[in-house]
Structures are given as structure tokens and as C-alpha cells.
Specification:
- Helix content is 23%, strand content 24%.
- The strands form 5 sheets. Strands 3, 4, 10, 13, 14, 21 and 22 form a 7-stranded mixed β-sheet that branches. A 6-stranded parallel β-sheet has the order 17-16-15-18-19-20, sandwiched between helices. A 4-stranded antiparallel β-sheet has the order 1-2-11-12, with no helix packed on it.
- The chain is of the alpha/beta class and 460 residues long.
- Helix 9 links the parallel strand 18 and strand 19.
- The protein is globular and about 70 Å long.
- The two termini are 39 Å apart.
- The chain has 12 helices and 22 strands.
């Protein structure tokens, strides 16, 4: 009897063949998921500095050929019971009165028109909307996806022992997992799941093997267990988070890494209090997300430190109250400027670049007695940091942070709801959009310092 389970899928992916080389759009094969894994369709992804760091890396853990990408939004692939694939269509409803009432679910039906009529029936007699068929749109539209052209019996494209997710769920993959069962997951003191545990591997976490191969059958390596620069990918179930389907895909995508890391560092790790002072070294996407998190927490002074004066106006929109350009201070150290603004030093300092010298500057800028310095940047040269033991003795401390201290399955849905309730700002992080075929433009924009986040659409 023929195996009725999920079959390999051929799709497009952006493949990097060697360190620092442009990505090439190729047809790849994505194998079915194994136990504890899911196969998802990527709707959109975005480029993070971590992708660029490993893209440049010539030595291990830089391995090639590889499919990069780890910030994404997707939905589950459904395989019809007779082995055929249903067609996936997208549509959206634009609310002309500006009120956003999102719907995003997959319904089984005989035709896309039946699906759309079902989705739109509550609004059928209202003049407040206009239907715009096919393709993701701006933030004030409703995204609808439907599976059709097949029988109602379906097989979810998940491996054995996957029970928490259902076909059609809106999901974001994350580089850090949460099994919810290990000692770290059960503790409020850590977000470092140890089952199977975080590491930069060339394969998936449970067996370090790949689910990707190229057109000639040669293996392609994964990146951070996600590899979202592909139309389809396979991810461990501990690294898949279900989010409110009302989330617009491009905004949900940001919760996979950068925005969550920054907001979480202020909210979950530092636990910034109302009225406190915050200093942020580096106003890229993560730094601005820290500012947004500090704003939500009620910080009264949010100091941004950056060499680019063009960051000032944008930083204000994320709650930054003071801006310091070290090039304009003359001989005055940055730490002295921050101590003067805060009358003794910032309560919380965040290093978001990845330079040992800046980590030391952030530490010196924190207040004696209770000042906390939170390290978010990965030191790009592998250099150690040197700190004054006297200042540590006087009450200062340093904290490390992976993914902002966030437990993905527990906290990302909270952030999604905060966005939908207009408590969390995400829209302004997205400065550019490109199609998958133009993904190298996203690299150019980030390397030139022209973008915060560039959304990469798989099928716009």
C-alpha cells in the first residue's frame, strides 16, 4: 500500500554557496518532517544582522552551502489524503474606515470563492470595506488564506509526537526553543531550554541532519534550526510558536528575533521600572526595540547612543528622550555624559552592537549601588571585556541575554496581543520590502545602514 504521509516538496530557496557570496535562487527539495518536527510554508521572512554575521563566516560554525534566515511568519502545510497538494491562495480585505479587524485562517472548501465568501460574510452588507484579491497588502488589510482543490480529509505535515499545533495555525519559528518540560523551561530564572538545547548547528537539533537538498541531491545546511529563506522549511516543534492569526505577517515576522530580543530585554530580563533611566548603546533594530520596551515599561529617561545622527528622529518615535553622538562630545567620555544626564548613572544600560569596548562603556555608565548592564550584542571579534572589580564591589552588575530572556511559546503571544491592542509599536521597524528573487538587495540595504528590517515576501 502506498505511503499516504507527507511527501518531499520542491520549492524555491535562496542558497548561499560560499561565505560572503550573493545568494542564488535555486529549486530545492524539502523532506517531510521527522518526529517532533513540523513543515511550514513561509509567507514572509526578514534579514537580521545575525544572518549577515554567519554569511561572512569562513570557519566553523560557518558552513556552506546553507539556507539562511531565522525571522519569519508561516502557516502549516496540509497534504491531501490522496497525496495531492492543495493550492494555497492569498487575499485581503481593506477596511476603508481604517479600523483593523483581522482574519487569518485556513478553511477547507471546494473553491477559493467559497472560502472568501465565508470569510467576508460578516461584512457583506457593510460599506466599510472593499475586497482586494490576492497578495499580502499593507497593515490595514485582512489577510486570508485558503486551501482548496481537494477532498476534505487531510494529513497535517507534522512528524510524530506533535500535538500542540493544528493545520492552518499562524506560526513564527524561533532560533531558541521552549519544550516547557526541562528544568530551565520550568524555571522563571532562565529561557535557555535544554531539550534539545541551543547551538549553532548545520542540521536540525535532535539529530543534526538536514531536511534540504539541492537539485542534484546534495545536502544543504540549516541555519539556527529555521532556514526561512525558503518557501518551505522544517523546524523542531520546540521552535514553533503559535500566534494570534490576526497578526499581519510582516509584523509577526519581527517577533521571531529582533523586536522580541530588544523588547524582552527591557521587559523580561532587566524588568525596567516606571520612572527609571535607561541608556542604549547602538540604535539598530534591537536597540530601538529596547527603547520601545523601556517606553512600555514607563522609563522616564531613555538615552540613545549612536554615531549616526540620522537615527535621532526615528529614535524619538520609539521613546528615546536623549540622544548622544560620541563624535560630538570632544574629550568627554560617553559614560560621563550619561552620568550627568541621569544624575549619577543610568539604572539600566544595554549594549546592542557587539563590541567589548562598548560593553565596558555601558558598564561605566551605570549607577553605583544598583546599576545593571545587559549585553545583547555578540562580540564580533570574540574579544573579552575588562571591568573594574571596584565598581562591581560597589553594586553594579552585568547580565547576558539570549533572545531578551523571553520564553518563546509563553511570551511571544503576549507581544503579539500587545501589538494588536496598539500597546507595542512594530510598523516602523520595517523600512523596506523585496521579493525573494531580490533578496540580495536586502543584504545591500542592511550592509549600507539604510534599513532596520527588510521584509522578504515569498509569493507577493
Amino acid at each position: 500500500m502506498e505511503n499516504q504521509g507527507p511527501k518531499p516538496i520542491r520549492c524555491k530557496a535562496a542558497v548561499c554557496r560560499a561565505a560572503g557570496e550573493p545568494l542564488v535562487i535555486e529549486e530545492v527539495v524539502v523532506d517531510p518532517p521527522k518526529a517532533h518536527e513540523v513543515r511550514i510554508k513561509i509567507v514572509c521572512t526578514s534579514l537580521c544582522h545575525s544572518d549577515v554575521t554567519f554569511w561572512r563566516m569562513k570557519d566553523f560554525p560557518g558552513v556552506f552551502p546553507r539556507i539562511f534566515g531565522h525571522e519569519a511568519f508561516g502557516s502549516f502545510l496540509l497534504t491531501l489524503a490522496d497525496g495531492r497538494k492543495g493550492k494555497l491562495c492569498f487575499g485581503c480585505v481593506e477596511l476603508t474606515n481604517g479600523l483593523i479587524e483581522h482574519v487569518n485562517r485556513i478553511l477547507l472548501s471546494k473553491s477559493p470563492l467559497t472560502i472568501l465568501r465565508t470569510m467576508l460574510s460578516p461584512f457583506a452588507d457593510s460599506p466599510e470595506f472593499s475586497f482586494v484579491p490576492y497578495g499580502p497588502g499593507p497593515a490595514n488589510r485582512i489577510y486570508i488564506s485558503g486551501l482548496y482543490d481537494g477532498p476534505r480529509r487531510v494529513v497535517e505535515s507534522v512528524g510524530e509526537h506533535v500535538e500542540e499545533l493544528a493545520a492552518g495555525d499562524a506560526v513564527v519559528p524561533t532560533f531558541l526553543g521552549q519544550c516547557s518540560e526541562c528544568v530551565d523551561c520550568r524555571s522563571a530564572r532562565s529561557n535557555m531550554c535544554t531539550n534539545p538545547g541551543f547551538a549553532v548547528r548545520p542540521g536540525l537539533p535532535r539529530d543534526d541532519t538536514t531536511r534540504f537538498s539541492d537539485g542534484e541531491g546534495n545536502p544543504l545546511h540549516h541555519f539556527l534550526g529555521v532556514s526561512s529563506f525558503s518557501e518551505y522549511t522544517v523546524v523542531d516543534v520546540t521552535q514553533v510558536v503559535k500566534v494570534n492569526p490576526a497578526m499581519p505577517p510582516s509584523k509577526a515576522c519581527l517577533l521571531s528575533c529582533g523586536a522580541t530580543t530588544g523588547v524582552g530585554a527591557a521587559w523580561k530580563l532587566a524588568k525596567v521600572e516606571p520612572g527609571s533611566s535607561v541608556a542604549i548603546f547602538g540604535l539598530g533594530a534591537v536597540g530601538l526595540a529596547v527603547a520601545e520596551g523601556a517606553r512600555i515599561c514607563g522609563a522616564s529617561k531613555i538615552i540613545g547612543v549612536d554615531l549616526n545622527p540620522e537615527k535621532l528622529e526615528l529614535a524619538k518615535e520609539f521613546g528615546v528622550t536623549h540622544f548622544i553622538n560620541p563624535m560630538e562630545l570632544g574629550d568627554k567620555p560617553v559614560s560621563q555624559a550619561i552620568i550627568e544626564i541621569t544624575d549619577g548613572g543610568a539604572d539600566y544600560c544595554f549594549e546592542c552592537i557587539g563590541l567589548a569596548a562598548l560593553m565596558a562603556d555601558a558598564f561605566r555608565s551605570s549607577r553605583e549601588g544598583w546599576g545593571k548592564t545587559i549585553i545583547l550584542g555578540v562580540e564580533m571579534h570574540g574579544a573579552p571585556i575588562s571591568l573594574s572589580s571596584r565598581e562591581i564591589l560597589h553594586g553594579k552588575c552585568v547580565m547576558g541575554s539570549l533572545f531578551g530572556g523571553v520564553k518563546p511559546k509563553q511570551d511571544i503571544p503576549v507581544l503579539a496581543d500587545k501589538y494588536l491592542n496598539k500597546e507595542l509599536q512594530l510598523d516602523k521597524f520595517i523600512t523596506h520590502e523585496v521579493d525573494l528573487k531580490d533578496i540580495n538587495e536586502a543584504f545591500d540595504l542592511l550592509l549600507q545602514g539604510k534599513s532596520l528590517r527588510c521584509t522578504i515576501w515569498m509569493d507577493k
